[in-house]
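Input/output pair, single chain:
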Amino acid sequence: MFIATTVLSISHSVMAEGFQVNLQDTRSIGMGHAGTGFFNGPSSIHFNPGALGMLDSKFSMTIGGSLIFGSNLYQSATSTYNAKTENPVGTPFYAYFAGQVMPKLVVGLGINTPFGNSLKWEENWSGRYLIEDIAMQSITILPTVSYKINDMFSIGAGMLIGFNSVELSKAIPLSNALGDGRISMSGKTTSFGFNVGLYAKFNEKLSAGISYRSKSTVKLDGGDVDLTYPVSLASLFPASTTFKGELPFPSNINLGIALRPIDKLMIAVDVHYVGWSAYDSLNFDFSTNSAALQDSYNPRKYEDSWIFRIGFEYQAIKKMTVRAGFYFDQTPIQDDYFSPETPGANKLGFTGGLSFSLVENLKVDLALIYIYGMEREAYYTPDNFGGKYSTVAMVPSIGISYKF
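Output:
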């Protein structure tokens, strides 16, 4: 029973709060990742498909990616013991393509990575029975259509087709002198959702938008389980088994407004409401049970959360634009349900960026984020494990855009 419970806690967190990756466009990243309330070229496929109808060229595309350099620190609340993660470098990416098929009708296709992360705690750390390492990736395809109603309003909608994979492992405490055992799990699955939006350009100085990305249900069925243990304990474990369960990606309601007080300056403000309360619990079934591996129910009790963003864009010279931004990302994880495979915290993000034109219609975007996770003392009470956690990350990004 103990083994089943700890394995489940890992599987859930792979999809949880700290793994909603907000790195879907380098221009927006430089502005605190705001992008709902203004036309953002083909990247509007993600931020607000309603704005895509304002496309001002026959064809437009943008591609790019980021490198995530991050680490997490754990400090015991009862001793001087501490441990750090040795995370692999994360590589989220995006690509968006859009074109006019009729004067007021625009179609687009996007590819991005809205969920995913890698986390690896140092060897033999004190929480190894909860998590050693995890690696999750979700690649989403976004076919989108948008219609320009008139010069002021446009609407749009698209599908979210996610191709998801996960790998994770943890140590198993064994009551003998042979050391720890180990359990590794992996699985692949597809998820589906939708994205809709409305955009309004009131005049040259004011625009606004609202978009909704639906919850997607990720169903894992027939996932692989690999158990390592001494031969003398073989009777406690099944000879082979698989796992299944359901995990949600949260919904997002996004509101944005963009002001242009002077011709060269834009100020964008976004507010996001993230439906993390979909994570109330995780029920997990193994196809074959044994004395040491039973099905389990695990409470999560996540709460809905808010993200507040503000960004600035200024055209410094004819072929160069500079950007800056800030955001506050509220964690949905309660103090009593905090597990180290998801070291979530209220996060502050400080961003900057610039773009420059190499030749006509070709633009290069650069951005950088410094993320500071506020230190918190928290516990996962079902497993009686906790302490103080802190998180920092540095994320450089690059993008290239072209239109004709």
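The domain at 2-403 is CATH 2.40.160.60 (Porin). The helical segments are 2-13, 26-30, 44-47.
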